[in-house]
Hints:
alpha+beta
Amino acid sequence: MDKFELARDIFEIVCNGLDATGYRYTKDEGKLAIAINFSGEDIPMNFAMIVKPDLNILRIFSVMPYKIVEDKRLEAALAVAHVNNRLNIGMFSLDLSDGSLIFEVNQLYDETKFGEGLVNSLLSISGYFVEEYNDRFLMLSKGVLSLQDFMNK
């Protein structure tokens, strides 16, 4: 099976997994991409899922709906390092040039070990971590929460 055929199969598995759980999403079959929007407790969470045939990776990511203000980016970078050191799966990344903050999980796939349950687990874990930290990063950016308080929570 060639990489693009496998990627299309993985995309179908991802869609089937989302359908089985009742998630509402939009898909772009040509780009092998899916968009999902959730309402968090306080901040909306938007996720994208992209099958990347060149790397055999399913990428799940969420761009925070705010940017870290310039004078708080160094503190936010330290907070990102602090959080990432505690995560077992996934990571936050901060673009210091514009303050954008992303959470992402990348999952390798092959012809034998990939299923709907894995997709739903990865999306659930991603949602949990975004919900757990998005408001804390926002409060740090606004100066409402100090770096020390962020790390102690």
